[in-house]
Design brief:
Tumour Suppressor Smad4; mainly beta; 6-stranded antiparallel beta sheet
């Protein structure tokens, strides 16, 4: 079982706890859809830069977890430290423990086990201490242009 947690961005919290998450079974064909309208996936309705249909998918295939951009308007980015890499539409990127990806203004953390709130807070504080920018401060495309901003 893997869990995707929306840890930064314009998502909901209840009593300071993150409530936007999605689980993906380690079973061939299992998936989680990331979108603004997803009732069964990672539901990011507070992020206007996330596509209403399928923005991205996390799936389990060939014994591994994969991230796939579903042809989103604003792109899906993998994040390693402070570096963002645009994931081409329909390309797959393998996900490892604690990998992060950015959709819209939301940072999502991939975990193979479910973290508690203290772990999520510590991870965020550690990233901030290292000077890693939040999703809201990342470069964005100029208003009125189409397609993702390439960094």
């Amino acid at each position: 079982m893997a869990t995707l947690w929306a840890v930064e961005g314009p998502h909901r919290t209840v009593g300071g706890l993150y409530v936007e998450f999605c689980r993906v079974a380690a079973k061939e064909g299992a998936r989680c859809v990331v979108s603004r309208d997803s009732a069964t996936g990672l539901h990011l309705d507070h992020d206007p830069k996330v596509t209403r249909g399928a923005h991205a998918r996390v799936l389990f295939e060939e014994g591994e977890f994969w991230l796939v951009d579903a042809g989103s308007a604003n792109g899906t980015f993998t994040r390693r430290g402070d570096a963002l890499d645009l994931l081409p539409a329909d390309a797959k990127a393998r996900l490892d423990m604690m990998d992060e990806f950015v959709v819209g203004d939301t940072v999502v953390v991939f975990r193979v086990d479910e973290p508690d709130q203290a772990e999520l807070d510590a991870t965020r504080d550690e990233r901030h201490a290292k000077g890693v920018r939040d999703a809201r401060t990342l470069p964005r495309k100029p208003a009125g242009t189409h397609g993702p901003t390439l960094l």
